[in-house]
Amino acid sequence: MRLIDTHCHLSLIDDKEEIIKSFEINNIEFVIEVGINVENSFKTVELANEHENIFCSVGIHPNDSKNLTNKDYDSIYVLANNKKVVAIGEIGLDYYREYTTKKEQFASFSNQLQIAKENELPVILHIRDAYDDAFNLLINEGIPENTGVVHCFSSNWKTAKKFLDLGFYIGIDGPITFKNNHTLIEVVKNTPVEYILPETDSPFLTPVPFRGKKNNPIYVKYIIEKIAEIKGLNKDNVSEILSNNAKKLFKL
């Protein structure tokens, strides 16, 4: 199996260089390192520039959208011009924790959608307990021509179809391997395999059989195998399709 991870946070892992060294032996073709705030986005670009098999995104997570200034958005805009940057993200709405107000999150989301449009880049969406508002904001603000992916999708098939109809891909992470996750299994079963992306969200959301331990991109294998099992398809063929999906969306 050729493996890819379209969403990880290696910059948050102390032994990231050891993990990166293990990519070749574990058949990792490439990964996408995802930014969560301005400071971290500088790190994602730096890491990507140091490694041929790492691409990156830059962006401000909704939980980091408090007290943002034009300087913050300008920094993301400038970083977006780096040749290794393939998306703006992760951006969106998160109502699970009250780190910021909805107004602040709306402003951050809207401004970064504009950055994506101006730089002709897809977006990596972080949405938690806010799917309706995120969908409506996308409709009102206008969807980037290059669309994007709904990272770590956690709602139901009805919601997934709404985003698929807009042209978005669905990001599937470790929770697909968790026992009795019937809602997400239904999403994977109904979503065309050509619109699924495999993600680890490392160092978070570690899949079975390593749940409870620190996650890393090589565990994407278990996510891809589970997707193949649910779809009733050959895992090597699924791995190839998912790799091509990422290359198509992120223009790799």
UniProtKB/TrEMBL annotation:
GO terms for cellular component: cytosol. A divalent metal cation 1 binds at H7, H9, E90, D201. A divalent metal cation 2 binds at H126, H151. Signal peptide: none annotated. One of its GO terms (molecular function) is hydrolase activity, acting on ester bonds. Keywords: Hydrolase, Metal-binding. NCBIfam families: YchF/TatD family DNA exonuclease. This is TatD DNase family protein.
